Amino acid sequence: MRLSRYFLPVLKETPSEAQIVSHRLMLRAGLIKQASAGIYSWLPFGYKVLRRIEQIVHEEQIRAGHLPMLMPTIQSADLWRESGRYDAYGAEMLRITDRHDRDMLFTPTAEELITDIFRAHVTSYKDLPLTMYQIQWKFRDEIRPRFGVMRGREFYMKDGYNFDLTKEDALHAYNRHLVSYLRTYERMGLQAIPMRADSGPIGGDDTHEFLVLAETGESEVFYDSEITDLRFGDREIDYDDRAQCQGVLEEFTSRYARTDETHDPELFAKIPAERQRVARGIEVGQIFYFGTKYSEPMGAMVDDGKGNRVPVHMGSHGIGVSRLVGAIIEASHDDKGIVWPEGVTPFHVGIVNLKQGDAACDGACEGLYKAFVAKGLEPLYDDREERAGAKFATMDLIGLPWRITVGPRGLGAGVVELTCRRTGASEELSPEAAVARVAGIYAPHM
Ligand code: P5A
Hints:
The protein is α+β, with helices and mostly antiparallel strands. The protein folds into 2 domains: about 5-335, 2-Layer Sandwich (BirA Bifunctional Protein, domain 2); about 345-445, Anticodon-binding domain (Rossmann fold, 3-Layer(aba) Sandwich), CATH 3.40.50.800. Helices cover about 35% and strands about 25% of the residues. The chain has helices at about 20-30, 45-65, 75-85, 85-90, 110-120, 165-185, 240-255, 265-270, 295-300, 320-330, 360-375, 390-400, 410, 430-440, and strands spanning about 30-35, 40, 65-70, 75, 95, 105, 130-140, 155-165, 190-195, 205-215, 220-225, 255-260, 275-290, 300-305, 310, 315-320, 335, 335-340, 350-355, 380, 400-405, 415-420, 425-430. The strands form 6 sheets. Strands 3, 7, 8, 9, 10, 11, 12, 13 and 16 form a 9-stranded mixed beta sheet that branches. The chain has a 5-stranded mixed beta sheet with strand order 20-19-21-22-23, with helices on both faces. Strands 4-6-5 form a 3-stranded antiparallel beta sheet. Strand 5 and strand 6 (about 105) form a beta hairpin. The longest helix has 21 residues, at about 165-185. About 40% of the residues are buried. It binds '5'-O-(N-(L-prolyl)-sulfamoyl)adenosine (P5A). Its EC number is 6.1.1.15. It is found in: Cytoplasm. This is Proline--tRNA ligase. InterPro entries: aa-tRNA-synt_IIb, aa-tRNA-synth_II, aa-tRNA-synth_II/BPL/LPL, Anticodon-bd, Anticodon-bd_dom_sf, Pro-tRNA-ligase_IIa, Pro-tRNA_synthetase, Prolyl-tRNA_ligase_IIa_type2.
């Protein structure tokens, strides 16, 4: 992409309405624009990040054996009356009446609708286990939408639902989700810690929230500092292997880590004092096992193979896809702007031409551009007639992990400059070597 043809409405002023750094940077770097309270348009640059995050979520869900599907955003109230949640959900649910005076709503989550699909088509244990998921817009009429996309009213969520014959099978689905979430967040350059939480309006007793530690997080958290040393890494996992998934659950949840809703001061006090941590976190996901809470009232029953019709055991599992954009920035920025992790960056590399209109510089930039595209990478070429300082400031603000600077002096010596956004370290190398270096860095992410 050439910056001269892109839509990147960068703001010079710091927007006064934004209280936290990720919100400020998302506005300043032209990722989003508020449409109304808690509702945002995703401009091309922000939309690209959203898509990258969505893609990682899809890949990891499919790897775990879960089936992608898509349900509508507008649902009939009748289904929610069957589960009892139409009244229970309260003011957070956006209620709509259609021209025939039918009660409709904008989905805040989709346990009822997926259970309705299940009961219409599945009658036997032979069709289990089954896990389906979607990535779809949700609406919750939050009393205090704030911090930009972090607590929106309209937001993008991955929501998955498992159907199993027994509690034991459903707990395996729970563990599978826990493992796949650990992989998902690490690919985005995040450490998200599973913490024992409260299930709220979704229901059930077994639930973990995934929290990214950040001072601006909305949740107060209490944990054993040893937990921050854990990494899932690139270990191979067989998602059908119950013992293996259970082992990961025990490894990542055996130490004390709780949100304030479930915090137990007595248990916490048993951790050696130097390891006790009280901090804040951003909730980027939550997994639930709630048994037959929906299947029983809604009649989602299967033949268990022994002549009985039994309600299926279910759980649901969410990832805050749009919130993650803010969470990643909260976890990865400096005073100049965003620093995208390689796994989610909207463009892989920035090309800065220090002397636009100079035949040698223009030619070298075009050559680099084509070489990156040929390697399957997306460069963003700053080809504007701007001062070098302005170009660098824009690149730093928008946070591409790698920048190549092309100027007449370097080209005279046959080199360009490759700069790492995170460390600020630069090195001079030939254009070919620079392309090979950057391609090598991204190879594990392709
Ligand atoms: C699990 C999937 C559920 O709704 N039902 C289907 C379950 N869980 S949840 O914890 O309530 O939401 C899942 C994730 O969505 C994000 N989230 C939000 N993101 C932005 N703005 C909001 N107002 C908002 N509310 C929830 C969180 O990341 C949460 O973990």
